[in-house]
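>> Question from a student workshop board

For tomorrow's exercise we were told to take the sequence and the ligand below, predict the bound structure, and bring the output to class. My setup keeps failing. Could a helper post the expected result so I can at least see what it should look like? The ligand is 2-acetamido-2-deoxy-beta-D-glucopyranose.
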Amino acid sequence: MPGKCVVFSPACITFSLAMLFELNLKTRSLNPCLEVIPGHSYRCMELNLTRVPSGIPNTAQTLDLSFNPLKILFSNYFSSLFALRFLDLTRCHLWKIEDHAFWGLNNLSVLILTGNPLQILEPKAFHNLPSLQRLIAVEANFSPLESLPIGHLTSLQELNFSHNDIDSLKLPVYFSCLIFLQHLSFQLNRITSISVGDLDALSSQNLTLVLSRNDIKYIELNAFAGVHLQQLFLRACFENSSIMQASIQNMSGLHVNSLVLGDYRNIRRLESFNKNLLDGLCNLHLQEITLIEIKSLQTGSSFSSCINNISMVRVVHTFISEAAYFPTNSNIDQLEFKDCQWKKVPAEKLSSLKKLKVIRITHNKYLRGFEVYFTGLLNLEVLDISVNSLITHLSWVHLLEGAPNLKHLNLSFNSEIHLKIECSGPAKLEYLDLQHTRLYLPGTVPSFLCLNNLIYLDISYTGTNVIAECSFCGLDNLRVLKMSGNFFANNQLVDNFRNLTKLQFLDISNCQLTYISLSSLASLHELRLLNVSHNKLLGLHPETYMHIPVLTTLDLHNNQLAALMEEDLKNLPGSLKYLDLSENLFDCSCSHVSFLQWAKNSSTLLQNVKNMVCHSPVDLKNVQVLDFDLASCKISTATVVISVSAVLVLIIILILGYKYYFYLYYMMVLFIGHRLSDEKVTAYDAFVIFSSKDQEWVKQELQEPLEEELPYFRLCLFYRDFIPGVSIITNIIKEGFQTSRKVIAVVSSHFLESRWCNFELEVAQSWQLVESKASLILVVLEGVDKTVLHRKLGLFRYLRRNTFLMWKDRDFSRHVFLRQLRSALLEGKTWTEEELRLVLKK
Ligand SMILES: *[C@@H]1O[C@H](CO)[C@@H](O)[C@H](O)[C@H]1NC(C)=O
Ligand SMILES: *[C@@H]1O[C@H](CO)[C@@H](O)[C@H](O)[C@H]1NC(C)=O
Ligand SMILES: *[C@@H]1O[C@H](CO)[C@@H](O)[C@H](O)[C@H]1NC(C)=O
Ligand SMILES: *[C@@H]1O[C@H](CO)[C@@H](O)[C@H](O)[C@H]1NC(C)=O
Ligand SMILES: *[C@@H]1O[C@H](CO)[C@@H](O)[C@H](O)[C@H]1NC(C)=O
Ligand SMILES: *[C@@H]1O[C@H](CO)[C@@H](O)[C@H](O)[C@H]1NC(C)=O
Ligand SMILES: *[C@@H]1O[C@H](CO)[C@@H](O)[C@H](O)[C@H]1NC(C)=O
Ligand SMILES: *[C@@H]1O[C@H](CO)[C@@H](O)[C@H](O)[C@H]1NC(C)=O
Ligand SMILES: *[C@@H]1O[C@H](CO)[C@@H](O)[C@H](O)[C@H]1NC(C)=O
Ligand SMILES: *[C@@H]1O[C@H](CO)[C@@H](O)[C@H](O)[C@H]1NC(C)=O
Ligand SMILES: *[C@@H]1O[C@H](CO)[C@@H](O)[C@H](O)[C@H]1NC(C)=O
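>> Workshop helper replied:
Here is what the output should look like for this input. Compare the format with yours to find the bug.
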């Protein structure tokens, strides 16, 4: 009943879930493993697998099957996985490996069998592994070496049999075939004695042999005679120091490049002191010795003179009082003390070691003092006193007096150092590392004046505040300057690096910089790497790039850039290979479309593009810059075009509107006039339009004779009859045209010049057409240009209803003019009774 399942019942859900689960299981059973790199690398850790999952493709090179109960590796177990190079079978409960179990794995290079309780290794178990280089079988229950069928694995470079049950170092003959072997570890096995001939089968002369944590009780005299090793680890091998001493004695004749002797911190065995502990070393041939946790040096008055001929001596985690002395006439050229609880730099004692080239005194957390300097160490080139707790005033003069050939000085990771400004001629120092040590004075005064040969200077995170422009003066040969995590005055980089013309690497990240002046980088023509990440820059000056023409790496990540401007992009040096712009405040608006386009096109140059995300606009926040849709900008380009054209059209309309303002006005007037024309009653005989410059004339020649002599006419004159506070156009229409029977236009040269009068005239003319009511009386004054007049008045002059009068300033003409005017005005006049009476009385 499939229909039932539409109903939302718990039973149905359970059923569907079960189906899903089963489906999931089915697909998973094909390949339940994690695909680390598709087709290449698979992790099938801890999946309760009992065999190789069939879903692993035969292209897989890396397969991790650890923590699965495989138990037995049968023949051809991995036959389909020909390409395997790395196979991890850690803790697979393997107890048996059958013949040809690894058949077909011709390219397998690393096999890990750690943590398997192996009981049966069939004789051909490791056959068909011609490429195997590393066999790691820690805790694999291996016992006698002879029984291990590995003699044919001639490519082996590393055999790690740590933590097994091997009880003899007697190397089987097959070791003579393992000519590439470099690492052989028998750490934590059960080897108790070493005899002459045990290492005879060793063919490699370059082997690192690890015998640490075997409880070695007996080493036969000359057991190592003639043996050549690269490195020998003998940590925590001897129960007490007398056994250790005797064992070292019996190792005479061994040639080993580096010997590591001592204990582990958590194993407290070597208690008693034996001042001749290391005397046996005289009979060994060593280049390096590392002494770790040698308790016997605790009361330590002296090192054995047998370390004299060893060129490098390292002492790690061993308490050495300052009083301990070193053999005179020593040939030691490298000396290292790590974590040795010094309180002061033992300069006096070490000054006896005239051959010293390298001194390293590191990780001593109580080491604070460095007041006494070395003397007469003419060979000293490297002095590393990093990672201590030094609080000191450093005097270049004294330091370099005692070690005039010092090239490397490392004082990094200390507490605080005051650098004195003093100088006694140019020093040979080439590398100076002061990072993470609080420094006093650099930045405020030129502290490096005599370090002309310095190539490398690291003052990162030293609390330096660069105020003085000459802070770096004297560093004429500097190539690398690392000074991240410091400060610059006003958070601005100005001319601070002026003379560092050879600088190739400059790290000024994390300096809170808000501004980098153009001149500050202008002399750095050889700059190849510039790191200004983690600052607060809004940009670099586009011309900056022109001054750094060979730049290959530019790191601007974590600043406040909104985009690179077009000029920046144009000026980027052609040599640039690495540009990190991630974690900036990108503005993904279309105003930066050229940058966004460029970014899309520059994925080989740009680093960390995943972290190049938009900061604004809000709707694009956290969108990757490279995912920005450029097409969206094209649309808005169209909108821009449209709006620009709209604005243009509007402007044109406005211009036209301004130009034809009167005409528009006139149209409006026509329209309004037409609507209102019926409503008004005639109140005036004539509306006089004239230029205000002719006002006097109007008063004398029109107003007085027409209004004060019989028959009386009433004129509409703007200076007298217009209603104040009402717009002129309304007045013209309401008070002028609408309420007047006729219109008198006083045409003078002023009239013709005035746009307003012309307009009024035109309104009057049209009015005449619209209403056949107010007919026009044109009064033309003297001195009016005839041609202009003709052009302006055109045909209206000849219209029947119009009257055309010329006025001349002569008595006779004036009389005629008035008569003509009166008769024109009389036409159509309606008389009031009183007027009639008055006229008739006359
Ligand atoms: C592992 O698989 C076996 C059967 O192959 C099963 O009996 C056992 O319970 C499984 N163990 C775990 C932890 O799933
Ligand atoms: C084994 O390695 C060689 C050289 O790296 C390669 O040419 C060959 O294809 C590899 N064989 C398999 C089966 O992947
Ligand atoms: C051998 O394996 C042990 C344990 O995994 C490891 O600590 C040691 O470094 C390895 N030795 C070599 C020589 O790789
Ligand atoms: C000797 O072994 C070391 C690693 O232990 C290796 O770096 C060096 O190249 C080897 N030298 C020779 C000559 O094989
Ligand atoms: C050193 O060799 C001598 C002579 O073979 C022997 O007597 C002594 O026990 C050996 N010492 C150690 C600690 O193996
Ligand atoms: C060192 O150990 C050996 C063997 O256990 C013992 O015989 C000897 O007395 C011890 N020596 C010292 C000085 O403790
Ligand atoms: C150091 O080597 C020189 C020759 O290189 C030798 O004469 C001297 O005895 C050796 N000193 C020690 C303590 O082994
Ligand atoms: C100085 O020492 C520190 C800490 O040991 C180290 O990280 C740094 O690389 C050293 N500097 C140089 C220039 O070797
Ligand atoms: C910078 O170098 C020029 C010539 O290379 C030199 O004349 C000038 O004194 C130097 N300035 C400083 C402050 O070192
Ligand atoms: C620049 O400096 C920052 C932090 O100081 C660092 O994370 C980054 O790797 C440096 N960039 C380059 C290219 O070295
Ligand atoms: C993108 O790159 C190609 C070649 O890499 C170039 O021809 C094209 O002009 C570039 N386009 C832009 C917009 O920079």
